[in-house]
Design brief:
Layout lengths: L1 H21 L36 E2 L4 H20 L15 E2 L1 H11 L19 E9 L6 H13 L18 H6 L6 E11 L2 E10 L51 E8 L5 E8 L4
Parallel strand pairs: 2-4
Antiparallel strand pairs: 1-4, 3-5, 4-5, 6-7
Helix pairs in contact: 2-4
The structure holds 2-acetamido-2-deoxy-beta-D-glucopyranose.
């Protein structure tokens, strides 16, 4: 009996170890996940050291299960609100996903936040998510006055607050920056993960936060599809906590390319030379209507 339980614990430990490292053990440099070769993946040749812009004493804030839940809940609250159609400017959302925490997106956000600056990284796509979006922010505050949770909550609130500048069409670009708001309500952002860092800056404390989302916004694509009623298009029902969002089980095609722009067809030519080596050339040509 004793021996069996030892074996059982051993196997369980191996499975758990694999969940955390086997799944993430591939090389981010080798995979061709970034849209242009010049765009380097945030995790490629990154040993996780702090960036040159960081102050001494910069430290990551651990994302406890509690904190993860808090962040996801705040984001879902805002999504649920917009999806309901309560903001009269925006009609109800046909099929908006419930956001869940994803450890890999969080790990990559952590690498980005360790740069201690307010710019997005170049690329952070994963095997599961090919169009990962990112929001970056910071808050400056006097020490010991606010909890980490308050600061993070405040930042997410700020991002959401861009809605005040947004037009009915939710157009990107133009003069007003609403990219963070638009990312928060992207219907296919099924997963998210954040990294948070704190450092001292003169007399002040500074908190950086980077959040990655399973699906980024695409320029020509609406942030969400409009429904006659919120969640009317959900195939698996609605989320009991957030009734204007689909249930967590709802399947979404997070990797689909822009549905609203004609896709060029990809032509692939293969040549076989005498010694068996092959060369491949790919070329895209716009599809004829
Ligand atoms: C990690 O990478 C940085 C920057 O590329 C380098 O300066 C540092 O020496 C590396 N640290 C380790 C422990 O390899």
């Amino acid at each position: 009996m004793f021996r069996v339980s030892h074996i059982y614990v051993g196997v369980l430990a191996l499975v758990l170890f694999c969940l955390f490292s086997c799944a993430h053990g591939w090389d981010y440099c080798q995979e061709h996940w970034c849209s242009r070769p010049a765009l380097q993946h945030v995790a490629c040749n990154n040993n996780g050291s702090l960036g040159a812009k960081c102050k001494s004493g910069a430290r990551l804030i651990p994302m406890s299960a509690d904190m993860q839940q808090f962040i996801v809940r705040q984001v879902n609250l805002y999504r649920n609100q917009v999806a309901s159609g309560a903001f009269r400017k925006w009609p109800p959302a046909e099929r908006m996903a419930t956001v869940q925490w994803d450890p890999e997106l969080a790990k990559l956000a952590e690498l980005a936040v360790k740069q201690c600056h307010l710019a997005t990284d170049n690329c952070r796509n994963t095997r599961r998510f090919k169009h990962v979006g990112q929001i970056v922010g910071h808050v400056i505050f006097s020490a010991n006055r606010f909890s980490q949770r308050q600061l993070i909550g405040h930042k997410i609130y700020n991002w959401f607050n861009q809605y005040k500048k947004a037009t009915a069409g939710l157009g990107l670009g133009l003069r007003k920056d609403i990219t963070s708001f638009r990312q928060l309500i992207q219907e296919r952002a099924t997963h998210m993960g954040c990294g948070v860092l704190q450092q001292q800056r003169h007399r002040w404390q500074q908190q950086f936060i980077v959040c990655n989302f399973a699906r980024q916004n695409v320029h020509h694509e609406p942030a969400y599809a409009i429904g006659h009623k919120a969640a009317a298009g959900c195939q698996t029902g609605t989320n009991p906590q957030f009734p204007n969002l689909c249930a967590v089980e709802e399947p979404f095609d997070v990797n689909a390319v822009d549905r609203y722009v004609p896709k060029p067809t990809l032509l692939i030519k293969m040549k076989y030379s005498e010694d068996g080596m092959e060369s491949i050339s790919a070329k895209s040509r716009p599809k004829r209507a």
